Structure to design on (485 residues):
């Protein structure tokens, strides 16, 4: 059993469904030709359509439709050849039209699936309910002036895909795994850059709890507009515990919209949750129903890249990696490409270890992405070759790697310059072993008395004495021979 919350009256299960707003990668907006770039001067990317000037008519951007279909195919979802744009009516200062053009009854994409990679090599399928297209609203700026608010309409009309999951997630970990997987699929497809800090991927979480064994769902609260995976996980955890406490104290959970305060790590009520009928949806009379052909869909299908899931299966079959390692490598296309370049003609497990451990650790530490890795895949490959042909020990290779990462350079040249070549001269190693034994008579006695662990200590001493250049396996054998006869 996964994530449960213990209550006085028994264990509670957490039920989560996510609604993700993903900004479509497109030069132009959904219904106008205005630009969509992030960080532009306020109100510099606004057409008359985006500003809702009377008489302006929306024109659907075909590229955005193709991007949404591509995403639907990547989610193994049903593509609806007929879908309908509707007006979702509400008032807000940053929504000059007075309605958002969205899809409601007839979305472009129907049910699909995402496979989660969970710890311990487990996987689980999560249902996608639908994907529909809609336009973004503008942005109210409340922090520029003490008494006035400003409106920036650059985001008005920016193309979005709203991707709705089924309530198949069972806690914060699931939600985190879902978001990471969805983001990796979107990036792989090239339909959304997944950049949460810039608002290209925003998440609303529907959270409810129920007693283990209960068949029906209880009332849910919706937490709005979370912009990091960590916040999503924290918000779900807080909200689930809060609801359990409400029930345990005999109370009732309200259907409401809540906000997550990331500074306090708490959710708080914003407004009682509106229902769909409050928005008075109706088909937009300015837009015809969206009809696409099966050929259009098939053409996009033929151009799909290898998706993370397929790549993972290929890595498992071809390289006999663990499911976990394969999952880590395929999460970003660039990491997978880098790994494949290193693994070409080499032991894949070793290549995976270097990419997942040494390289990723350094990249994380220096905040660098793998495309800009200071160590190229060719050079990492050469370094691995120096270990496999026994020129250097693994310990020395780590030293060489650190130098390559910090200062660049060819691994063989670094090995030569630093004198790190593995000592193959058995005489030299033997001298070192003899010296270390002679200097440590007490430990030597321990080994002879049967303390096998102390052998490891001796190996460490010899490695130190030889500057990491001896072969630890050979040292171990030699020590055993000398000490135990
Ligand atoms: Mn929406």
């Amino acid at each position: 059993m996964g994530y449960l919350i213990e209550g006085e009256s028994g264990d509670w299960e957490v039920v989560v469904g996510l609604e993700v707003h993903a900004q479509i990668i497109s030069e132009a907006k959904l219904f106008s030709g205005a630009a969509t770039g992030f960080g532009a001067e306020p109100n510099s990317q606004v057409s008359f359509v985006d500003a809702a000037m009377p008489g302006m008519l929306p024109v659907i951007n075909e590229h955005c439709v193709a991007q949404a279909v591509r995403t639907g195919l990547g989610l193994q979802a049903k593509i609806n050849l007929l879908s309908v744009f509707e007006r979702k009516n509400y008032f807000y200062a940053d929504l000059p039209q007075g309605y958002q053009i969205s899809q409601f009854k007839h979305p472009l994409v129907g049910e699909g699936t995402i496979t989660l990679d969970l710890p311990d090599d487990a996987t689980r399928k999560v249902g996608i309910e639908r994907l529909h297209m809609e336009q973004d609203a503008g942005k109210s700026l409340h922090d520029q002036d003490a008494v006035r608010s400003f409106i920036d309409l650059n985001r008005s009309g920016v193309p979005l895909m709203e991707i709705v999951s089924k309530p198949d997630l069972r806690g914060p970990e699931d939600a985190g795994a879902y978001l990471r997987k969805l983001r990796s699929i979107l990036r792989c497809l090239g339909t959304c850059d997944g950049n949460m800090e810039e608002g290209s991927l925003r998440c609303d979480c529907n959270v409810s709890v129920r007693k283990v064994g209960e068949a029906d769902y209880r009332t849910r609260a919706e937490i709005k507009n979370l912009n990091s995976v960590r916040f999503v996980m924290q918000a779900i955890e807080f909200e689930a515990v809060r609801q359990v406490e409400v029930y345990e104290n005999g109370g009732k959970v309200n259907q409401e919209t809540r906000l997550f305060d990331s500074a306090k790590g708490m959710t708080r009520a914003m407004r009682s949750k509106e229902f769909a009928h409050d928005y008075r949806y109706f088909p937009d009379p300015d837009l015809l129903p969206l009809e696409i052909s099966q050929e259009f869909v098939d053409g996009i299908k033929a151009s799909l890249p290898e998706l993370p899931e397929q790549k993972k299966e290929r890595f498992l079959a071809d390289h006999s990696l663990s499911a976990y390692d394969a999952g880590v490598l395929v999460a970003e296309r660039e990491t997978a490409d880098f790994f494949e370049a290193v693994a070409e003609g080499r032991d894949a497990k070793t290549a995976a270890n270097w990419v997942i451990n040494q390289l990723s650790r350094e990249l994380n530490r220096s905040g660098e992405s793998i495309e800009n890795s200071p160590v190229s895949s060719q050079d990492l490959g050469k370094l691995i070759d120096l270990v496999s042909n026994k020129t250097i020990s693994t310990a020395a290779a780590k030293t060489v790697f650190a130098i390559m990462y910090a200062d660049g350079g060819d691994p063989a040249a670094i090995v030569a310059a630093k004198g790190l070549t593995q000592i193959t001269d058995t005489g030299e190693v033997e001298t070192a072993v003899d010296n270390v034994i002679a200097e440590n008579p007490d430990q030597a006695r321990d080994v002879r008395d049967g303390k096998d662990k102390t052998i490891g200590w001796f190996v460490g001493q010899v490695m130190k004495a030889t500057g990491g250049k001896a072969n630890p396996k050979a040292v171990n054998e030699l020590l055993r021979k000398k000490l135990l006869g």
Summary: The chain has a mean pLDDT of 93. The pocket of manganese (II) ion is lined by residues 21, 134, 162 (CB under 6 Å).
